[in-house]
Amino acid sequence: MDTPNLRLLILDDEPAVLDLLAAALEGQLIAERRIEITIRASRAMQALELARLTPPDLALVDLEMPEMGGLAFAKALLEQSETPPDVLIYSGHTDRMDVYEALESRIKGYILKGHESGIDQLYQALETVCSGGIWIAPEVSLSMYQKGLSKSFSQPSVLWKIPLTVREKEVLECFRQGLTQSQIAEDLELSFETVKTHLKNLREKSGCKNLQELRLKLSEN
């Protein structure tokens, strides 16, 4: 049986950005599923209506939308969906309280717009979110950590005091270097599901709520 495509909604009020994102993402393989862009919209209300007809699995949303902000749109989309999609916000800001509000609103990713590694970062974010994690752009994570926006991020790391298997250490080192789960699987010649299981175990052993918090703990060392 064929694996169903990942249905993606993209919302941005700039046509050039919509075209760029569509060209970069259509047909890409993320977490072993092929992306299919089912909704491209420049207006929030239009996107909500289309999402009622064709519910997306993922939504990529510009934070600075004119008629309805990206966070307000994301909340409305999640509330109207029987099976809520994973929502990722992208913005040009690293130090806004919007980041914290986004995480509290069940948004799974915060991507930095205009970053020099923007498309690669976007692929990593989608890979992480589609694998059950939460993605925050590294620059945003650093800003949050420095400003103390998340108390859990400011606790001393105990990760290196935890006994790990040889394989867990290998997976952890690859993850620390910024490799995606698919890249780790290829590098260590493991299945994607095995890597996913190792990261889940590492997250639980370290007491992290998600993979982004694990990444932050690694950066403390």
Automatic annotation (TrEMBL):
Database matches in InterPro entries: CheY-like_superfamily, NreC/VraR/RcsB-like_REC, Sig_transdc_resp-reg_C-effctor, Sig_transdc_resp-reg_receiver, Tscrpt_reg_LuxR_C, WalR-like, WH-like_DNA-bd_sf
Modified residues (4-aspartylphosphate): 62
GO molecular function terms attached to this record: DNA binding
GO biological process, one term: regulation of DNA-templated transcription
UniProt keyword terms in alphabetical order: DNA-binding, Phosphoprotein, Transcription, Transcription regulation
Domain Response regulatory as annotated: residue spans: 7-128
Alphabetical list of SMART domains matching this protein: HTH_LUXR, REC
SUPFAM superfamilies noted in UniProt: C-terminal effector domain of the bipartite response regulators, CheY-like
Name used for this protein in its record: DNA-binding response regulator
Organism for this UniProt entry: bacterium (Candidatus Blackallbacteria) CG17_big_fil_post_rev_8_21_14_2_50_48_46
Classification lineage: Bacteria, Candidatus Blackallbacteria
